[in-house]
Every structure is written in structure tokens, then in C-alpha cells.
Specification:
The protein is of the alpha/beta class. The chain has five helices and six strands; from the N terminus they run βααβαβαβαββ. Strands 3-4-5-6 form a four-stranded mixed β-sheet. Strands 1-2 form a two-stranded antiparallel ribbon. The termini are far apart.
Length: about 140
């Protein structure tokens, strides 16, 4: 097997990942189709994270696929933070936030919108207010209010 190829985890099947090497084995290293997720998981473990549940989908912009993945997470009680790295679609971000709101025991971290206007509203985009989410941007942080 070539060094740049990995056996991928099955679609829509949550996997418990407990270290970076395990993530690379199931989801791949830093590569074109995986950069955002790989960086997010690498950062999670590099900052002291120890248990991360990951599910593979084919499109982060497909709210149906994301909703199906989120439904798989409902039975995993230990999940406290839910993120969909790279998801900028309003419907996907709403699905992640609504999942956390409905579960009432987890918190969403969503990406800020790409914008040249550095204001809370521009970065937040049209995502609604929620006590269950935080919007993160590469340039600043703001709570969704």
C-alpha cells in the first residue's frame, strides 16, 4: 500500500479514536480531501484530548448526511462537544446546533463564515441564537447571540 493511501472507516459508522495514529489509520493523514478534519482532530489530541468519536461521511455540506451522522451520536452518552470542521452550510450548522440543543448535554463548535467584514454578525452568518453553540473564526471568536 502506498504511503499516501489509507483504509478508510465505513460510512456512517461512529468510531472511537483515542490517539492521532488511530485516527490516521481509520480516516487518513493530512491529505487533500481530509485537511480540515485531520487538522481539527490533530489539534484535539495535541491539546490534551483523549477520546474523540468520528464518523465518515462523503460530504460535509450535505445536511442529510450530517443529520444521519448526528443521529448515530445520540446513543453515545460521553460526547460533550460536537464539531463539523469545515461545515459552512447554514443547514448543516443548524443541524449540529439543533442536535446539541435537543440532546441538552453537549455543545456545538461551528466554523465562522468566510468574510472580508470582521464583525460578529458577518462571521456568525445567518445561524440563529443558541446557548448550545460557539462560532469560531481563524481571526476571532464570538459567541452565537
Amino acid at each position: 500500500m502506498a504511503a499516501d493511501r489509507y483504509i478508510v472507516a465505513p460510512l456512517n459508522e461512529p468510531r472511537l479514536v483515542t490517539n492521532w495514529e488511530q485516527f490516521k489509520t481509520q480516516f487518513g493523514d493530512f491529505q487533500t480531501g481530509n485537511l480540515t478534519l485531520a487538522h481539527a482532530v490533530y489539534g484535539f489530541f495535541n491539546n490534551g484530548g483523549t477520546r474523540c468519536h468520528v464518523v465518515r461521511i462523503t460530504s460535509i455540506n450535505n445536511s442529510g448526511q450530517v443529520t444521519t451522522a448526528l443521529q448515530k451520536f445520540e446513543s453515545i452518552d460521553e460526547i460533550a462537544i460536537v464539531a463539523a470542521p469545515g461545515a459552512l452550510s447554514n443547514t448543516v450548522q443548524d443541524a449540529v446546533i439543533n442536535h446539541c440543543k435537543n440532546m441538552q448535554d453537549r455543545f456545538a463548535i461551528i466554523d465562522g463564515q468566510a468574510t472580508t467584514t470582521i464583525t460578529v454578525n458577518a462571521i456568525k452568518g445567518p445561524v440563529g441564537n443558541s446557548d448550545y453553540a460557539l462560532c469560531i473564526s481563524h481571526t476571532c471568536r464570538s459567541t452565537i447571540r
